[in-house]
Amino acid sequence: MNRLALIALLALAACGKQGGLTPVPPRPAPLQASDAIRPATPTEMLVLPPQSLPNRVDDPLLRSQDRPDDRFNLPPPGTR
Asked: pTM above 0.90?
């Protein structure tokens, strides 16, 4: 069984495409953006814009600190 599985995996691994990608004939290639001078490369498309990973600047605690007592932090009713 192991030999058969190994042969199947090797056959499946040999099915990879070696050349460049081309669009399927009935569908055209994707259009470039209207304000782009040239089409973006795949590497440029993978770069995340700054909006997707913003820097966190609104966290008031810079290090772990004990919180001050809060007189309104009461247990639920009936647990006293």
From this structure: no
Residue 61's pLDDT band (cuts 50, 70, 90): low
Whole-angstrom distance, CA of residue 11 vs CA of residue 80: 69
Residue with tokens 């609104």: 58
Six token digits for residue 49 = 């814009």
Q: What is the DSSP letter of 37?
A: S
Q: What is the CA radius of gyration of the chain?
A: 29
State the Cα–Cα distance between residues 32 and 63, nearest whole angstrom. 46
Residues 6+ apart with CB under 8 A from 23: 29
Spatial contact of 40 and 47, defined as CB atoms under 8 Å apart = no
